[in-house]
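Write out the 3D structure for:
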Amino acid sequence: MEPPECPVCLAAYDGDDAVPRVLACGHSACETCLARLPRALPHAVRCPACTQLVKFPPQGPASLPKNIDLLRLCNPGPERADRDRSRRGSLDDDRRVNRELFVVKTWSDQFYAAWKEWILPYDALSVEEDRGGDQRDFCYKLVGRIGHVDSGLLSMRCREKQEISLVPMVSLSNGNQDSSGFRFDYVARVLTCLSSIGEEALNELALILRASLRRQCRLCQVYGLWGNLKEEVLYLVCERLSGQVLQVFGELPQFDGIDGNNVSKDWVSNFAITGMEICEGLISLHKQGLIAGCLSFSCMKIDEFGHAYIDLNEVLMLERKVSVVAGKYVSDGKGIDNKELCNIFHELLESDALVSPEVLFELLRRWDAKLDDSGSSHLIGYGSDVWVLGCMLIRLLMGAAFPGETWSMREEGDSDFSVLYINWLENVGSLLEKKVTLNFVSLRLVLLECFNLDPQKRPLITDVRKCIRELIVGYQCCNGGIDEEVVREDPEVHCLTFGKLCRMACKSSDAWRKELHGSEHAGGADNQNGKVGVDKELVEGLSEQSVKCKDLRGHLDSITGFAIGGGFLFSCSFDKTIQVWSLQDFSHIHSFRGHEHKITAVIYADGEQQLCVSADSGSGICVWKIHSPMMEEPLKKWSEQKDWRYSGIHALAYSRNGYLYTGSGDKLIKAWSLQDCTLSCSMDGHKSVVSTLVAFDGVLYSGSWDGTVRLWCLSDHSALAVLGEDIPGSMSPVLSITGERHFLVAVHENGSIKVWKNDMYIKSAKVHNSAIFAVSLEGKWLITGGREKTINILELSGDELQVDIRPVGSIPCGSVVTALLSWQGKIFVGCADRSAKVYYSGK
């Protein structure tokens, strides 16, 4: 026979290292393990064998009695003793392996943790309509500090009334499953939308968000994600800078040529500073592994200190301008020929949409897969932005956009694009040679090199910046040993113009504009029938199941409680009746009548007999037989001792030890024997009305209007602990409690909830704006309802160290919610307007 062993470390008992000590529940464990067991409460511990909460002496486990009978059976050999010590040494590892895991939802806990901090609250933005012009325009601002993001790189706080810009990303699902009224929570809708856009878009979004947090990156700050529930659009919220590069730089003086004699030093310095700022903006972008691909002067913004920043909103939306220009030449499935390609390039130059040839070719292939790629077979890289930089600097030098005569088809309308491109480059060089002389010669040569058809032969941005700086500090100083940090070409570089976010922004923008202004304002190839903009896969429903609702009609007054047992649902009401319903089809089966006062509580007792027990505001208690045939009259009936100062029974609970517990207005908890209906004892400790009771795992939990939750031992009805007294904050009355094996949740009159796990306080949260009258917990799902006339569905998720309270959805009700019960995925709801409903999922 195997000798008896400790249920914790599995070591055989002995009189030295593993002394068996007897707990109040009757189970034994070795003294060493009992000393190491975690104790959330000072004078109580959970038995490792039955998990019952029992008293624990303040002197430690050594003061508990030894189990002499077990010691007599123990005589371990040396091999067994060595094995026991090894088991005891790995005790902590065994506990970690046996931890309970939470069920994975639509998105994982890791996904939630990664993206939650980037979701801005719905009320974080204010919208102001600009009525100054003929067209409808809006100005969005932050209404205050919207949160705190700490990535280890930058602690970001948003300024109050910060003006922002919105990048439309994707349409939000409306969150309504069906006519039941169930609606997913704002955060849950945004997370579900994010989880559906695909790994490519998520990786790109994460790359942009990380880049915007870095101080050295000249990308306008990205504050996070915001869902506009009215427009059903998910936006990327970005910083909005009002300074324009051309406005700051000013207009070029009127003269025939630029040299050191007829150009003021102020203008040269202004040009050099502006040019270097543009270079710095692109260099900082490249350092983050990003390429713009498409730029215009509207994308370059100036902050209050004169530094140039790249506006992400403008970059993502610039592809739309390219698509509008290209869309005029793509129709009826015809391909883009050489002449149309040249016209597109010319039109983009004049519209200030600066796109290098290799980027343009790649963009056009989206509309025409048969496009001849002989014009550009070069890879897109940092050199693509060098081409754009050259265009911007020439624009600053010339004082106007590229003149139309620099690009001319002449008589070579059918010529190859590369031939016309070389002609255009010669025209640009001739124009620069006439306008730019003397000290600008080196800059002119570098600018012409920026337009080389091969991106690999274009100069580095740092080389361009050197030439610009020469205009201020002189050639000798520039070669004086200043080290330039060169951004090396990275094969993993990401081009914003070709990213998934850019395509999503254009599509979402079309749908958004069409809904606001009508179809005539929404152009582009993505507009087809009706509301367009987002792939079907992005707006799929949040669940394959739908939420259904069924009315339970029968009560004539406010519903006060539910109970389930024996295959039936019991509901009690102020109308002094208890209605019995079938759990199969929710049909009405029977009515119990016998109370003389308003019924306040009902429970199911599964002892030797299956019984239904109810209590009323007049301190009356009724026991009902639920076996067929059911009777209208109670099986047993008695009353507590009445006191005119207090208002009857408020709560009921039942324990398998055969006791019925009542919580009353006289601040007492009474234990009654269901066999003879006699009072066994009274538990005193609360300072106000005992409003709620629940019994599980050998412990009776009681909540009171005094704001505390007390724990009582079911074996001897002694007090174990008090929860809530040491928690900071106001002692708001506890109106209801619920719990399962690991969790205990209390809801309060001020709309907050408090959560304990394994008897240890975890956290509190305000989930309603007013009193919460009812709560139910099933697994990880927490359902609350109260004066706000809304049922909130929350998820308790996390691990042993931390628990998170996540709002999932809500169900609007037409009246105050007074009773709740969750059972096997169904939610039973009772309201003050006598209505009772059951919500369940159906395919």
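Residues 20-97 form one domain.
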